[in-house]
Design goal:
This protein has 100 residues and is mainly beta. The chain has a single domain, classed as Nucleic acid-binding proteins (OB fold (Dihydrolipoamide Acetyltransferase, E2P)), CATH 2.40.50. Strands 1-4-3-2-5 form a 5-stranded mixed sheet, with no helix packed on it. It is elongated. The N and C termini lie far apart (55 Å).
Length: 100
Amino acid sequence: MKRTVGFMAALLLAAPAFAGKTYQVTGPVVDVSPTSITVEKGKEKWEIARDAGTKGGADVKKGDKVTVEYKMTATSIEAKGGKAKGDEKGKGEAKGKDKK
């Protein structure tokens, strides 16, 4: 399964250093380009976006073992409406009441 994590340098530079959790993935480089790096972890391939603001990695090539540190940042959020499952208070009979 291919996982894609994308982020923009402008957002990273504008965001305070303490904002957001960082993650990392370690493994051999499967593919590398100016805009992304793909690292294999187990049976999964992780494709992570990169740009001119990404630190290090200028001389990384296929087969090199690397550790990539990244942040996940939402690019959009769409509300689907309604309540989440299990959030249906008031439906059915109240607990602890006798039926007559």
